[in-house]
């Protein structure tokens, strides 16, 4: 094994020793311990150690040699650097000397240039003046022009330069004499050159020759017709540019393409682009708007067209502003596009709100009129107030005496409220609010929105909802009816609340955002609250009348159907009925009314109305029962009657207070059948504990055996 293995990578000492031992001892020594000879292995290790030492000495001598060579090379390198530094210093000194020499020569050259220019400029001016005087001389004679520069059509650019200068000279010539003819001829030639240049410009634009167009615009900058050149450019750019049905879709691409050409042709391309946009707005767009808005016979169509056109124009201004940033051109100041838009729509926007209100009134009037005609109803003047109420009460009293009360018109249950009508009105108003937010100026936005809101209030709230509620109130039967009352007011309340909720939703969604930041916001909230309170007051009045009519009919049933003999039959052998006739009629009637109330009303209104009706029903029932005297059989019958009333209240009204009242009334009725000895105990029960002792005492006195059984002494 050689020491060259030390130079192999990677090198492992452990593997090197293992290989040395394996090669020295062989495979048999590893398998057979008896053949293992440590002396041979020791000798091999000693030999390898000597070889490694020799190798180490050899490597060390090589390292020393390389170190010496490296030091010698480093010394030679530093010597070369020192020499280069000396040469660099010498070159830097030479460069400074040369720079000073160049500066000196440059100063001399500039001085000589100034001297030459001072001599050459007057000479050039003199040559130019001589040339112009020569051309002017031709205009002073009566002979035709002969100079090629003035007559050769192929030298039009030189002609333009000369004529422009001669035109300025002609302006300084004295008036009168032979100069007038020259001035006139120069002016004619000036106009002819202008026309030819503009013609060449048009041809160049049609051919797409930007270089030719640029040369002509540079010449025409000094002519009076430079603006005319821009007009020709704008006109030519628009030819064939409008390819879509709507001109609004073509304007931005037209401006982007024209801007590229304008930058290549004109030095003042932003001015050209501003004039192009102004021409488009005051020409194409204004003509399109005028044609669309020319027919104003139908205000709704007119307003929709105005809104659509204004939206499209506003969107166009936004896209143009965006294009200005993306394609690096400028259109006037920051208000340039807004002023153009305002100039197009000014005459329409100034009278917008008048047309809007007129259109809304006409549409709402037509909608309501069509609805009432469909119902075969003629709107009438509603009489309200204290005088009308007094008149109605007097008629009711007279009717009680004459048995012919005032005529109550309920229109067969028609509520005269329509969701379709309300939705149509609200949809038109929503569109009006949307138009108002776009077409009104910021200063007029809130006031215009309030005007639209007041129209909505007038026709929807007052002339439809409020009118229907008033009709519903007048159709409520009197408080002392002689016939079973038909009460349709609950349907009116249900539909009126539904329509008013739709009104409130639009108030919040469409109207309030328009006045939120104005000083009118508080007024608008107050106005809506007053409308709600006014309607609720009328509904409360109508509900109270309806409950009075219901209670009045129950009172009438009790008065006409309930006999004293019902609760004090003369014979105990008389047939026993489960309910008295009066109780059967009352329960049937009350069941129908409670069902109608629950079907028509919702939310808290149901609980409030049923609670009020239930309390009055309980008071009437209690007062009615205290008018009779009860024997044992009659007491059983009245308990059955009250149980029927209680069942209705508990299962259908579902108002805890009313249920408790009828539970107490039922408990009072039980006192009519309790044996005298137990009355004291029963009257102290849980259901009667909350009642005053006088109430219990008065009710017990209704027993037929109150005196004979000495019940009063038992209650002490």
UniProtKB/TrEMBL annotation:
The lineage of its organism: Eukaryota, Metazoa, Spiralia, Lophotrochozoa, Mollusca. Pfam families: Sec10_HB (PF07393), Sec10_N (PF20667). Residues 42-76 form a coiled coil. This is Exocyst complex component 5. InterPro entries: Sec10-like, Sec10_HB, Sec10_N. PANTHER family: EXOCYST COMPLEX COMPONENT 5, SEC10. Belongs to the SEC10 family. It comes from Elysia crispata (lettuce slug). It comes from the Eukaryota. Residues 159-713 form the Exocyst complex component Sec10-like alpha-helical bundle domain. Signal peptide: none annotated. GO terms for cellular component: exocyst. Keywords: Coiled coil, Exocytosis, Transport. Residues 41-143 form the Exocyst complex component Sec10 N-terminal domain. GO terms for biological process: exocytosis; Golgi to plasma membrane transport. The keyword Metal-binding does not apply.
């Amino acid at each position: 094994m050689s020491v060259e293995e030390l130079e192999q990578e990677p090198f492992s000492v452990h593997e090197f020793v293992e290989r040395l031992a394996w090669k020295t001892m062989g495979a048999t020594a590893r398998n057979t311990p008896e053949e293992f000879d440590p002396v041979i292995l020791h000798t091999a290790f000693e030999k390898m150690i000597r070889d490694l030492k020799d190798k180490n000495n050899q490597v060390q001598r090589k390292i020393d040699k390389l170190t010496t060579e490296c030091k010698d090379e480093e010394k030679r390198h530093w010597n070369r650097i020192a020499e280069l530094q000396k040469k660099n210093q010498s070159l830097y000194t030479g460069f400074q000397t040369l720079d000073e020499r160049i500066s000196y020569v440059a100063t001399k050259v500039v001085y000589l240039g100034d001297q030459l220019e001072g001599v050459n400029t007057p000479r050039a001016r003199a040559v130019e003046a001589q040339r112009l005087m020569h051309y002017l001389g031709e205009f002073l004679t009566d002979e035709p022009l002969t100079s090629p520069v003035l007559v050769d059509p192929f030298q039009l650019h030189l002609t333009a330069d000369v004529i422009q200068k001669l035109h300025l000279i002609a302006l300084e010539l004295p008036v009168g004499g032979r100069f007038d003819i020259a001035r006139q001829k120069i002016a004619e030639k000036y106009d002819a050159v202008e026309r030819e240049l503009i013609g060449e410009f048009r041809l160049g634009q049609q051919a797409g020759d930007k270089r030719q167009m640029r040369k002509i615009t540079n010449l025409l900058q000094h002519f009076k017709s430079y603006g005319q050149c821009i007009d020709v450019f704008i006109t030519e750019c628009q030819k064939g540019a409008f390819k879509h049905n709507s001109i609004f879709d073509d304007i931005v691409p037209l401006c982007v393409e024209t801007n590229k050409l304008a930058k290549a042709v004109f030095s003042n391309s932003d001015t050209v682009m501003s004039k192009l946009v102004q021409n488009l707005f005051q020409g194409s767009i204004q003509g399109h708007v005028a044609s669309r808005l020319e027919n104003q016979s139908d205000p709704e169509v007119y307003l929709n067209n105005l809104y659509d056109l204004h939206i499209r124009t506003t969107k166009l201004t936004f896209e143009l502003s965006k294009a200005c940033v993306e394609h690096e051109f400028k259109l006037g100041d920051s208000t340039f596009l807004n002023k153009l838009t305002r100039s197009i729509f000014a005459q329409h926007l100034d009278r917008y709100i008048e047309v809007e209100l007129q259109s809304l009134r006409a549409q709402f009037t037509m909608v309501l009129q069509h609805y009432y005609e469909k119902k075969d109803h003629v709107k009438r003047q509603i009489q309200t107030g204290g005088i009308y109420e007094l008149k109605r009460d007097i008629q009711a009293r007279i009717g009680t005496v004459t048995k012919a009360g005032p005529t109550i018109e309920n229109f067969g249950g028609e509520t005269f409220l329509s969701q379709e009508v309300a939705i149509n009105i609200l949809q038109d108003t929503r569109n009006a609010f949307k138009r108002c937010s776009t077409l009104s100026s910021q200063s007029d936005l809130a006031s215009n929105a309030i005007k639209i809101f007041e129209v909505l209030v007038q026709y929807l709230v007052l002339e439809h909802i409020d009118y229907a509620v008033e009709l519903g109130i007048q159709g409520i039967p009197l408080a002392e009816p002689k016939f079973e009352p038909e009460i349709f007011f609950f349907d009116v309340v249900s539909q009126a609340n539904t329509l008013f909720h739709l009104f409130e939703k639009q108030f919040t969604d469409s109207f309030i955002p328009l006045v939120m930041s104005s000083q009118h916001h508080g007024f608008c909230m107050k106005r809506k609250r007053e409308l709600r309170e006014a309607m609720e007051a009328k509904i409360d009045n109508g509900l109270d009348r309806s409950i009075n009519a219901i209670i009045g009919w129950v009172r009438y049933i009790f008065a006409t159907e309930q006999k004293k003999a019902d609760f004090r039959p003369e014979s105990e052998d008389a047939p026993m009925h489960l309910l008295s006739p009066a109780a059967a009629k009352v329960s049937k009637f009350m069941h129908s009314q409670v069902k109608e109330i629950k079907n028509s009303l919702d939310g808290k209104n149901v609980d409030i109305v049923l609670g009020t009706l239930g309390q009055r029903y309980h008071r009437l029932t209690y007062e009615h029962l205290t008018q009779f005297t009860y024997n044992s059989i009659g007491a059983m019958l009245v308990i059955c009657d009250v149980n029927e009333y209680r069942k209705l209240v508990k299962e259908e009204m579902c108002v805890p207070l009313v249920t408790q009242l009828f539970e107490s009334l039922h408990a009072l009725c039980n006192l009519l059948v309790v044996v005298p000895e137990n009355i004291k105990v029963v009257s102290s029960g849980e259901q009667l504990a909350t009642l005053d002792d006088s109430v219990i005492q008065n009710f017990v006195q209704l027993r037929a055996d109150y005196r004979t059984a000495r019940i009063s002494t038992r209650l002490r």
